[in-house]
Amino acid sequence: MPSASLRLAVVGAGAAGLAAARELRREGHAPVVFERAAAVGGPGSTRPRRRRTDPLGAAATHSSLYASLRTNLPREVMGFLDFPFVASAATSSADPRRFPGHEEVLRYLEAFARRFDLLSLIRFETEVLRIRREPGVGWAVASKKLGEKGSGEEEVYDAVVVCNGHYTEPRVATIPGVDAWPGKQMHSHNYREPEPFLDQIVIIIGASASAVDISRDIASVAKEVHIADRSAPASTNQKQPGYNLWLHSMLQIDRTQEDGSVVFRDGSSVKADVIMHCTGYLYDFPFLGDDSTITVDDNRVDPLYKHVFPAEVAPQLSFIGLPWKFEYDDWLAEQCSYPPIEEWRKLMYAASTKNKAARPESYRDEWDDDHLVVEASEDFKKYL
Length: 384
Ligand SMILES: Cc1cc2nc3c(=O)[nH]c(=O)nc-3n(C[C@H](O)[C@H](O)[C@H](O)COP(=O)(O)OP(=O)(O)OC[C@H]3O[C@@H](n4cnc5c(N)ncnc54)[C@H](O)[C@@H]3O)c2cc1C
Fold this sequence. Notes:
Elements: E1 8-11, H1 15-26, E2 32-34, H2 75-78, H3 102-115, E3 122-123, E4 126-134, E5 138-145, E6 153-157, E7 159-162, E8 169-170, E9 184-187, E10 201-205, H4 209-219, E11 224-229, E12 237-239, E13 245-249, E14 253-256, E15 261-264, E16 269-271, E17 274-277, E18 281-282, E19 295-297, E20 300-302, E21 317-319, H5 326-335, H6 343-358, H7 370-380
Helix pairs in contact: 6-7
Flavin-adenine dinucleotide binds near residues 43, 45, 47, 73 and 165.
């Protein structure tokens, strides 16, 4: 039985916010979803960025997506349980590739929002500025429409669901001497296309998906690309066969110098034009105060019961989308009387990860798990 309708606020209309809004609606509520972008979709949508903490000071209003970006997981894995991410009219597909471009992901999220009639719940171009607890009353949420002046409009809600994502506040590496280094530093968040790096020497810090994609993108035009990878063995200092790419251990970056050199621990150095930090993002909840009862330390949000509820203020405040592990998702699904994540999905995730390691250049177009695609397609028939 649905409970009596409550005044609920959801912060963010990315994948997590849309799913939360749909579930709250199923429980008989009509949440207000605040989204500072003009459209649904998290990193894929264009939105005004908060300038507060961009440590490299890049001035822009945009998301973190680069032009060549395709998903790093197959579409079958990424879809919502009962709204498969298949190339079909229902998902407004225009890019049927198994690892599609980011615009296809946006179209899919928009289709999800339309299918479950969520758009009318969303206040677009409206940023949540502050959330304050009013004991005995609820949570005062201050929000401001894009372009409006003043400190925002405040409304009181019974509960707030935080779905603001984790890809806004860049994390950058600490490099001794970098303040006096004359080159340009940027974060992958601000990378768009390779052309500006023509004939330049670029140091890329990191080894995750963005570092892999961007290093190869840039290597097509740059003079040299050096990847400083924290996980590479300490002695690594190798040219990659067939490419203008060198791999170094991040532990080997000793310092940067005023003459433009980046000096490695083994004494070698490279005079570089650009240091690109592909070093991920920081969890950030700038609109929450101490009364939320949580703190964030090195992307650990504490104290949260099962990564969702701050015990002191539960269930009136909750966080969606913090953990990553399948085991956790299965536990959570069980609590909510949903089935666990399908076996094919777990196997496909593992197969894709393996394939990506084996074929970093071509994993988006060549794979060995067609049998799992067949299994997924069979499963999807329940929902199509
Ligand atoms: C470059 C890049 C590539 C990626 N590629 C893949 C991929 O291939 N496969 C994959 O599975 N995942 C990928 N991801 C991760 C994927 O985007 C996230 O897992 C997903 O977006 C998380 O959804 P979310 O709803 O938690 O957060 P988000 O999608 O980030 O949504 C959060 C929303 O909250 C809004 N918001 C934030 N603060 C406020 C505020 N104060 N007021 C109002 N609105 C606010 C934001 O505008 C945003 O729309 C990628 C991420 C990045 C950055």
